[in-house]
Amino acid sequence: MTTLSNTEAYSLLSLSLACVGVLANTLQGDGGAPLTASIAFSGLAFSFCYALIRWLGNAFIKRGFKGRDLCKLKQTEIPETMGAVCAMVYLFILIAFIPWPFYKDIVAATSGGGNRDVMKELDQLETGRLLHRFPHNKLASYLSAILSLQSIALLGIGDDLFDIRWRHKVLIPAVAAIPILIVYFVDFGVTQMVVPTPLRPYLGELFDLGWLYYAYMALLSIFSSNSINILAGINGIEVAQSLVIALLIVLNDVLYLSFTPYPHPATDSHLFSLYLLLPFIGVSVALLMHNWYPAKVFVGDTYCYFAGMVFAVDGILGHFSKTLILLLLPQAFNFVYSAPQLFHIVPCPRHRLPHFNPRTGLLECSRAEFKKPLAKPIAEGLKLLHRLRMLDVEIDEKGQVVSSSNFTIINLWLVWFGPMREDRLAVGLLAFQTAIGLLGLFIRHRMAMLVFTQDNW
Ligand code: UD1
Ligand code: MG
Q: Cα dist. 23→42, 135, 283, 358 in Å?
């Protein structure tokens, strides 16, 4: 596991060389196409991440970054916190990419004592800016995204090191969001939202949320990071669900880019989103290949926070945070469903991942045992959920609720469909998530015309 096989080494090497070739090609002529460069950088991100996960695994174990795979017969220790490797590769790739979308602007703004633009003929001015090329001021947003993602990586590694308590660690993403919030304040400061048509007589066309908008952005970071972290516990699910979300956002971006005439403000936002997401997909695929059943590495809280933050930053700076929430619906449902345990209305064990049955080799739903009798309204609530097939509750002969399945959709899936192997469980949940996401995107673009006067294609 610690070295690359010959086939792997040659494949990664050829892929890297091909990507470097494409990158060199984009530099020919007029400074190239950043979107092509971004795809090539994502290929490099994949190769680096894949190789580094292999090479660093043992070093991570030696330093104590390791975990037991609880859903296996032989619970061997494997490296944990591999999300840190992803984050590191991702951030360096994002930094190396800067010259592609911003190159011309940096040159124009810095050489010739700032007089260079003055020397340009009027008809040259617009030809200088190809599609995919950003104005200089977008660099501030881009750098703030990098700063926020760097902060979340640091805080995530801190959590994996010190196992911070739940009530403290939920706030970690809000702290990491500070860089983008500050730059957003300085740069755009746009805190209005478009009001749906039926409410316009009361609120006007635009409604200014003021500081609430910043609270909303901070909450979005908290939600998207933590909701991925609690939809976890079986091999591959953290990374694969993030990949599904990333691919759905990419689909949404590509639809925008194909249908909006250029120049249009939405074009830049969606390109920006692609530049952040493509390398993320690169590192995540490399990680998934090691984390899929049977897992050879764990991703750690670092990856869950990092992935959630990539989405939050992408949605905020790309101005599509409502669409993002739509794509996080399965995670949102899991969050709401988990609430009784998260807020300790019913007891919450340290781990809620499914229970491995060594006799059958299959996963069954794990249970929370209630040693003390539950308060009557809570017990009745659980019984009602049981009748609705939303929970599996065990009742003793006195009618007391003694245990229930844990409140996660992973366990709910097992309640519905019975015991199954770990990878089938993951595939089922992912197919469900993809279907909901596609439906969400479809409804979003159909319904937008009903509640707003126009879709922002
Ligand atoms: C969250 C969940 C917890 C779940 C855990 C699993 C809440 C409130 N917390 O806690 O219920 O059990 O994630 O990630 O919902 N592990 C496996 N197989 C896997 C992935 C993880 O056995 O495929 C185990 C390993 O022992 C690993 C540990 O889970 O070391 C990681 O748990 P950690 O991420 O620290 O848990 P939390 O994020 O605190
Ligand atoms: Mg975790």
A: 11, 21, 18, 51
